[in-house]
Amino acid sequence: MDVEEGLRACAARVRADAARLVSCAAAMSALDGVAWRSAAGDLFHVQAAQRAAALRVLAGRAESLAADVEALAMLVRAAEEGDHR
Amino acid sequence: MTIDVTGGAGGTAAELDDLDRAGGAVARTGVTVGQVAASLSAVGWDPAVNAAAFVVARHDLASAAGAAGRVTLIALHSLSVSGPDGAAGEAVRLAALGGSVAAAAAGYRAADAAAAAALDDLQDTAMGLAADALPLLATVALADVALEGPEGALHRLDALVYDQPWLVDAATGGLDGLVRGLGPSDPASAFVLGFAAARAGVTWPPRTEEDAVRVIAELAALGGGLEEDAAWSGVEVGEATRPATVPAPDGLAGLVADAVELGDLDDPARVRVTQVPQPDGSSAWILQLPGTQDWDPHPGDNPFDLSTNVALMTGEATLAAAGGTMALDDAMAAAGRSGSGDPVLLAGHSQGGILAASLASSAAFRSTHRVTGVVTMGSPIAQFPIPKEVQVLSLEHVQDPVPRLDALPNPDRPTWTTVRRDLGRGTPRGRPSAVAAHGTAGYLQTAKEVDAAVAAGGSRSLTVWSGTAAPFVGRAGTPVVSTDYHVRRTDPMTPPGR
Predict the structure, then answer these.
(1) Which residue of B has its CA nearest to A3?
(2) Who's near B75: CB < 8 A, 6+ residues apart?
(3) B46 and A67 Cβ atoms separated by less than 8 Å
(4) Which end of chain A, N or C, is surrounded by fewer C-beta atoms within 10 Å?
């Protein structure tokens, strides 16, 4: 596998990780339906919602990392094509 | 609306099960996020990323610095998104949250168990003290009877139990304490109770309410009463009516209306089997059992009597249950549905409910009948090991002493819903009466309130129960086949000592 392919594979892995984080965020949001009616339960629901939000932000950061890696792959490709020309 | 719904799909146990699931889900999410953190941290060390700057430099030296800058940025970005401020930190926070939820569920359960144990000890101690005071209480009671006559004293007792239903809890919940307390009160009592316990196979002193009931039942048997198997050895069923095509029970109230009819003492000792046709060609079956109809301690040919109550509460087999089974089997055979695996709902008022719970708890009965539901009205059935896959609905009145006789709250589980109605001052008799609070007329009104609550959709437990009961009581207007069977004890034996 050449470097450009390696970079694209790396970016695909990072995008898959971002998708897993989105799934995790959805799983945390689904806990909204847990019937825990007390002060502790209210705190749990607040924390679950916070964790879901944090995971969505993390997923966005992972998408951004994947974009950085893809941009590097394009730079490598451009350099290689320029040399061939 | 005066009904209070506990247990079932919206009950505390279901909530704790929900908490367990939530804790597990959070912990699993934490593990997944930890794996993602490890994967993201590897980006900064990826061979392709680290080789990229060299490849660019080899082909385009002018772009090399830019490429090296991007690689550094990616490494830093990777560390940031996977590290303590990123996925790794989030994994730790999720693990902590999952652990907290699991600990909370365990804490709730432990606190509930500790409270139940403390209350049980308190009842035993109180009834032990009551045993010491028994001679004084008996004197007061006799004076009461002398002053007001037996009927007046009974009315006062009826009203007292209605107004103070917790007295029944205290008395039955402390039955083992009472029996233990009676033992040391005098040598003669100690000898008789010890002898009765030995005959009942109970280690003295009794440690549970069930063992205490066994000792008391054995005591009664020594006096020649309450023992069904000493007087009768068989049971037979005969159709009381031709199978009749009638409208299907309309909701829970339709089911309870059948219980009201079976309670008619002008035509006693009947059980009712109802075949409810289903859209797929199969059938659902309802076996409705009556309440206690004969209070004579010496068992007669009507099996729905006091001796059956005692046998049921001590876990013994009864001819009444055998008769109910024979009636159901006969109706299923007549319809060509024997061994079909059709669902069966067992229902009953008072003793009928205890019989229903007893049959649902019987592995032998379940091996030949697919019991999917039990509905009881005013029945003490908390101690019956009804399998979790069977949906139970228990109707109880706050002022009805009978469902309190087992001294236990009904299990709080997702498939066991208990509905309690506070009758306030409005009993069918127009005055405070524990006897009236136990009657089927009041339970018919309670069933109507349950149907209204189901229609309103305000209770998750009732909504879920209603869904499971739909094959039996959710097909209003459909013609069903209803058959009443007379159940009679047969083969009288000579009671010992006669």
Answers:
(1) B48
(2) B43, B44, B49
(3) no
(4) C
- Residue in B398, B428, B399, B394 with CA at minimum distance from that of residue B412: B394
Give yes or no for B59 touching A (CB within 8 A). Answer: yes
**Residue B343 · residue B471 · CB < 8 Å:** yes
Query: Which residues in chain B come in under a pLDDT of 50?
Result: 496-498
B279 three-state secondary structure: coil
Return all residues near B375 (Cβ < 8 A) that are at least 6 apart: B252, B255, B345, B346, B347, B348, B353, B356, B392, B393, B395, B469
Residue B479 — φ and ψ, nearest 5°? -70, 135
Annotate chain A with DSSP letters as a single string: --HHHHHHHHHHHHHHHHHHHHHHHHHHHHGGG----SHHHHHHHHHHHHHHHHHHHHHHHHHHHHHHHHHHHHHHHHHHHHHH-
A40/B104 Cβ within 8 A: yes
Residue B361: both structure tokens together = 């708890």
One-character DSSP codes across B321-358: HHHHHHHHHHHHHHTT-TTS--EEEEEEETHHHHHHHH
Residue A84: closest CA among chain B residues belongs to which residue? Answer: B59
Probe site for chain A from B6, B20, B26 (most A CB atoms < 10 A):
B26
- Give me the count of residues in chain B: 498
Whether residue B421 contacts residue B458, with contact meaning beta carbons closer than 8 Å, is answered with no
pTM (predicted TM-score): 0.67
| Residues facing residue B284 across a β-bridge | B276
Residue of A nearest to B18 (CA): A34
| B173-184 pLDDT tens trace | 555 666 666 655
Other CB atoms within 10 Å distance of the CB of residue B394 = 25
